[in-house]
Write a sequence for this structure.
């Protein structure tokens, strides 16, 4: 058992609170991605689990055992740092085997384990090189190998891909997912990159200002955000937010566009009739077209377009609001042209204008 549980954990540095009464459960064998902006407390959370920082309050359990005050070397965790933290004077083999040498394991056992880990990470041809002779991706794999060689109960990865280029980052994501499945390990992976989180996490924990905003599957986080922060932080291009009023004229509709709502949504939002509300709608739920046909559409002026190969995103202006929508086949793309925005009304999300909580 290698489940991780944090209960009521708080941490401050001087007068600055970093984590506030945080509780998190990571089941055995799960890859939990902690996602959030810089300064939200995610790396501090990882360092607390590793024992590199002490909690001010709360408890941390690994495998059902309270390790809150246990020294780092006895916690059974392997940590991969953002800056690799390799020893420059050691070879790849020596770096991978270093934690085992610290434990004074037999030389034969260390050599066998190093070869096995190197083969797993495609490092067998590089064992005699030093870090300066490696690419960024190779150094990252060496750092991973050093953690794997320890056979820890829990793997802790602190933004491990932030120092590699974009193409390598995509490939390394695939390798990390494969590695997690082959190890059948419990991992906590910290990142500010929402694409990494959506691609990797069996569970995603969105953190902001030291508090968990939402924890759940990638689909939960993306399609059913609990508040405006989660909705806005996850998604590329970002979600469109429009503040307006819900009005009633035989049916509930949203001003400023007289956007009619489906009957189910009308029933759920009936109490908000006449009140301000924030509409959240993802760009892929909006389609810019030249001819709206008979369906409801919002007239908008094209401000710019962004061609990305598989999709073109159009930024346009409608009733004083900027919207990003995917381009239909006949969508005008020239700045200043007029288009129509079709709305997938089954994919609308509504948020409180003051608290940001989904309504």
């Amino acid at each position: 058992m290698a489940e991780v549980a944090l209960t009521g954990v708080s941490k401050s540095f001087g007068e600055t609170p970093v984590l506030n009464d945080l509780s998190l459960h990571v089941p055995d064998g799960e890859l939990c991605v902690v996602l959030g902006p810089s300064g939200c407390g995610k790396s501090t959370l990882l360092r607390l689990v590793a024992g590199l920082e002490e909690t001010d309050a709360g408890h941390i359990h690994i495998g059902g055992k309270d390790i809150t005050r246990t020294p780092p070397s006895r916690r059974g965790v392997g940590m991969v740092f953002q800056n690799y933290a390799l020893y420059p004077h050691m070879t790849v083999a020596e770096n991978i085997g270093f934690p085992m040498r610290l434990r004074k394991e037999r030389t034969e056992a260390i050599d066998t384990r190093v070869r096995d880990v190197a083969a797993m990470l495609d490092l067998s041809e590089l064992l005699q090189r030093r870090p300066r002779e490696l690419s960024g991706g190779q150094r990252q794999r060496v750092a991973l190998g050093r953690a794997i060689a320890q056979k820890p109960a829990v793997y802790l990865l602190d933004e491990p891909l932030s120092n590699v280029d974009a193409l390598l980052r995509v490939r390394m994501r695939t390798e990390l997912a494969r590695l997690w499945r082959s190890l059948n390990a419990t991992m906590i992976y910290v990142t500010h990159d929402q694409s990494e989180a959506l691609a990797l996490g069996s569970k995603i924990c969105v953190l902001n200002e030291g508090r968990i905003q939402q924890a759940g599957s990638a689909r939960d986080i993306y399609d059913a955000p609990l508040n405006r922060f989660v909705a806005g932080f996850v998604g590329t291009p970002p979600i469109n937010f429009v503040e307006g009023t819900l009005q009633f004229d035989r049916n509930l509709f949203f001003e400023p566009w007289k956007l009619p709502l489906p009957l189910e949504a009308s029933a759920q939002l009936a109490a908000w009739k006449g009140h301000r509300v924030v509409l959240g709608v993802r760009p892929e739920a909006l389609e810019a077209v030249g001819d709206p046909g008979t369906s409801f559409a919002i007239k908008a002026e094209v401000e710019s377009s962004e061609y990305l190969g598989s999709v073109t995103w159009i930024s346009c202006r409608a009733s004083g609001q900027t919207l990003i929508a995917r381009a239909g086949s006949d969508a005008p793309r020239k700045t200043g042209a007029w288009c129509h925005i079709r709305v997938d009304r089954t994919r609308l999300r509504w948020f409180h204008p003051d608290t940001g909580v989904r309504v």
